[in-house]
Design a protein that fits this description.
about 20% strand; 4-stranded mixed beta sheet; single chain; Glutaredoxin
């Protein structure tokens, strides 16, 4: 597709990545490492939320952690693919 016709989305720095996990979760640690790298490279803000401190998150996601949201929408769970996250954030 020509760049002239590519759909424009929000700039990476206008996005928000949320990692939902819990302490002591090795998959959550792995997910955080990928998020830190991708978000650091692109200048995307990110936050970490703990299901042990937020009952509503626990009820919704406890079987899927770690869960990654992009702009409040579920992007993935269990394993974070660096290339897929980067593509989601840049639109490329």
């Amino acid at each position: 597709m020509s760049p002239l016709f590519r759909r424009k989305g929000p700039a990476p720095q206008d996005r928000l990545v949320t990692l939902i996990g819990k302490p002591g979760c090795h998959l959550c640690d792995d997910a955080q490492a990928v998020i830190e790298k991708v978000c650091g490279d692109l200048g995307v803000p990110w936050e970490k939320r703990d299901i042990t401190e937020e009952p509503d998150l626990h009820d919704q996601y406890w079987e899927q952690i770690p869960v990654v949201l992009v702009d409040g929408q579920q992007h993935t769970f269990w394993r974070v693919n660096e290339e897929r996250l980067r593509k989601e954030l840049t639109g490329n």
